Amino acid sequence: MSFSLPELPDSPAERYAELVDHARALIDGEPDRVANAANLSALVKATVPDLNWVGFYFFDGAELVVGPFQGLPACIRIPLNRGVCGAAARTRQTQRVDDVHAVADHIACDGATRSELVVPLERDGELIGVLDLDSEKPARFSDDDQRGLEAVAAVFVDSLR
Ligand code: SME
């Protein structure tokens, strides 16, 4: 199988609509969470501009443990009471941070990161983990980015059924 990167339209909403279709096609019929997290990380990193890190943390029943990602090596374990990822997992709400330096609780895996989006992953009320995106640009993530990446996260969760 060969895979070529999709050419996406300019408008953010249309871009994400197409990206979500590509994400679904990429992992179609595959239930393995490591395989799907790896391919979705690669797809998002290659198509969403200005990201320095994108990847998954999985909940092991006690804390978040790093899973497949694209970017520099990252913090391995994050307790639910720490960091932006912990907040997303604990509250089950997407966390969007325009300036991570202004967040005392932010865990700096890469000092170059300036803004962050973390989407919780849950299935039937059960915490699976989080999808974490970092950017070196302040306030990189818009409402369109948040909606689009929540939709990508939903494609991942659906694939586990
Ligand atoms: N910054 C995150 C930690 C994960 S790394 O960014 C990959 C946080 O504060 O939870």
Automatic annotation (TrEMBL):
In terms of SMART domains, this protein maps to: GAF
Which cellular component terms (GO) are annotated to the entry?
Answer: cytosol
Annotated GO molecular function terms are: L-methionine-(R)-S-oxide reductase activity
| GAF domain boundaries | 11-161
The family line of this record is: Belongs to the free Met sulfoxide reductase family.
Q: What is the designated name of this protein?
A: GAF domain-containing protein
Source organism of the structure? Tsukamurella spumae
List the taxonomic lineage. Answer: Bacteria, Bacillati, Actinomycetota, Actinomycetes, Mycobacteriales
